[in-house]
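Oxidoreductase
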Amino acid sequence: MSPHPVRRRVAVVGTGAIVAGSHLPALRAHADRVELVAAVDVDPARLDAFRAVAGAEVAGYPSTGAMLDAVRPDLVLIGTPPSLHREQTVAALKAGAWVLCEKPLCLSLAEYDDIAAAEEASGGYASVIFQHRYGSGAAHARELIAGGALGAPLVAHCQTTWHRDAAYYAVPWRGRWATEGGGPTMGHGIHQYDLLLHLLGPWAEVRAMAARLVHDTEGEDVSTALVRFANGALATVVNSVLSPDEVSRIRVDCADATVELTHLYGHRNDNWTYTPAPHVDPARAAAWRTPAADVPSSHTAQLGALLDAWDAGARPPGSGAQARATLEFAAALYKAAFTGRPVRAGEIVPGDPFYTAMHGDHPDWAPKERV
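Structure:
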């Protein structure tokens, strides 16, 4: 008898590169647990091309509403531009489905709280794709840090230094607050600092700067932050799309060891290194090496974790307080950068302009009227 007797019926919303290249392989990897039954796209040609790859048995629909009315799926995977995420997520929850949505889950804390209300009303859950949490190397590092095996966390660095050219921002929805939600703080570096929060726990205070140095966009093309964590550790965070030598990196210096991850768009065990402090016994340090199982960070790994939670009757990882904490960090970074003041965890509440929009209606950053 299969250990996973329940096979969930899944629909995808959006059939572009991220769904075809990442979500579809994840669904196929878990074919004993899920069945793709429907796909949604406003572009008929793109939808047909996806169905030709996914299988003729996958029904096609021009809108999320039409699909939800006809199919009533168990799980909806959302891979559309960010401005659509809140509406599509709430609609799926109201239809009784769980949701796994590309980052960012939504464009503001106000939108997130709308999703949380829909969760509570429906009994379903909405998770955001932060696949870097789910590789075996990340799970191992988090266990070591949280359990105190490496000593107290002291200093950390989080770096997303990527390169995006003018052609990248020629796509109409990119580079605009209303459709992308921000610059690399929201669209690129969010993966790495989400993993930093996963490793170090709650943040307490953020100071930041942001600039628009190269690209003609509404939001920033680079941001930097200084972060104090609740456990006392201090960190730097850099988010850039101006960097010809692209790298994604996290380094955490603990009292007894440095743990470092260096990669670009995904990691395996070999991307993690541990350097013991001089006083550490080598036999103790040997236990820190990455585990024998090598699970790459991927949509496949995160989908498996969601299905495990579903089978266990538990809230899935990447939802609820976890998802909100990462979005709150983004809002705090923007508020600190645009106001020039430190921002503390929990201070962005209804009535704060940064609660409803990442630009906070700041006169130097809020979108201008387009002629």
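The chain has two domains: 8-131+301-313, 135-297+325-356.
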